[in-house]
Design a protein that fits this description.
The protein is built from twelve helices and eight strands. By secondary structure, the protein is an alpha/beta fold. Strand 1, helix 1 (14-26) and strand 2 (34-37) form a beta-alpha-beta unit. The model has no long low-confidence stretch (mean pLDDT 97). The structure holds NADPH dihydro-nicotinamide-adenine-dinucleotide phosphate and (2S)-3,4-dihydro-2H-pyrrole-2-carboxylic acid (A1CAB). (2S)-3,4-dihydro-2H-pyrrole-2-carboxylic acid is lined by residues 100, 172, 176-177. It comes from Granulicella cerasi.
């Protein structure tokens, strides 16, 4: 970003905090280009000291004249926030909403200008280590250049994929919420390692690296996961006995229901 462009991060919570720290670390924005807000004064003071940026509780002042605005508040707060900042946003401002559930149309309507430029994004917390995935969908008046800018911003924290808005709740259930599901699976695998006699730190490292390695195999070979699974499964060996237990435990059914429920919840949250 050029040094005279400004970003406002409104609602500097867990997810937008991860993004902002990555932007700073990668040099996408310098501290002087950033203004952020939270709800509570004492949190604003702490974050300003921690991050060396301007953090306040004043959304209007933070958004005034901003080139890029990242909305990081809860889904039910997005429309009010958009209405609050609408009068001070320059016509060219690119608004990025990371809220689950809240659709583009009500955000565009709340901004009220003739052709507001809004991109909806669903990032995830592995962004913290540069291994995030962000799904983006373009608002009604987003130019190719603005979409490219949104992609560039989120590519500082991992991969991006552009989807139709109709897929955003499904994305939320799979990759937005997904890290939490994987952590539980990882924790259970580590517990399993402890159960068969491994020290906990070694069990956790084995579980995490195995998960990472398997994911990297899928991403880099492009092979179907079932083909990769077959490579591991020696006839009459150990793996197939393990797989029988996994299937008896209904892991597929449980994961399908898990993502389905999270995606349904994403439909409900904002109430639009
Ligand atoms: N956590 C995740 O993994 C992901 C979250 N999201 C989305 O990100 C959004 C935030 O979630 P998350 O980061 O988990 O939640 P947090 O509760 O951590 O963040 C919400 C932030 O909004 C601030 N806030 C509340 N009201 C206002 C206001 N009126 N003006 C300015 N700031 C305000 C809060 O301030 P204070 O700290 O002072 O209370 C808080 O910092 C949600 O819409 C969620 O759907 C999207 C993808 C992944
Ligand atoms: O739990 C949530 O609602 C948010 C959206 C995806 C991840 N966290």
């Amino acid at each position: 970003m050029s040094s005279n462009q400004r970003i406002a991060v409104l609602g500097l919570g867990k997810m937008s905090g991860i993004l902002l720290q990555a932007f700073l670390k990668q040099g996408l924005f310098q501290p002087a280009q950033i203004a952020a807000t939270v709800a509570h004064e004492e949190r604003a003071t702490t974050l300003a000291a921690q991050l060396g940026i301007n953090v306040s509780t004043n959304n209007v002042e933070a958004a005034r004249g901003a080139d890029v605005v990242l909305l990081g508040v809860k889904p039910t707060q997005i429309e009010d926030l958009a209405r609050e900042i609408a009068p001070v946003l320059p016509p060219h401002a690119l608004v990025l909403s990371i809220a689950a559930s809240t659709k583009l149309a009500p955000i565009e309507k709340a901004l009220g200008t003739e052709k507001p430029a809004v991109v909806r994004a669903m990032p995830n917390t592995p962004a913290k280590v540069g291994a995030g995935i962000t799904a983006l969908c373009r608002g009604h008046w987003i130019s190719d250049e603005q979409l490219a800018l949104a992609e560039k911003i989120f590519q500082t924290v991992g991969r991006t994929v552009v989807v139709d808005e109709k897929h955003m709740d499904a994305v939320t259930g799979l990759s937005g919420s997904g890290p939490a599901f994987i952590y539980i699976i990882l924790e259970a695998l580590a517990e399993a390692g402890v159960n068969v006699g491994l020290p906990r730190d070694i069990a956790t490292m084995l579980a995490a690296q195995t998960t990472f390695g398997a994911a990297k195999m899928v991403l880099e070979t492009g092979a179907h996961p079932a083909v990769l699974k077959d490579e591991v499964t020696t006839p009459a060996g150990c793996t197939v006995d393990g797989i029988m237990e996994l299937e008896a435990g209904g892991v597929r059914h449980t994961l399908i229901k898990t993502v389905k429920r999270a995606a349904e919840r994403a439909k409900e949250l904002a109430g639009n």
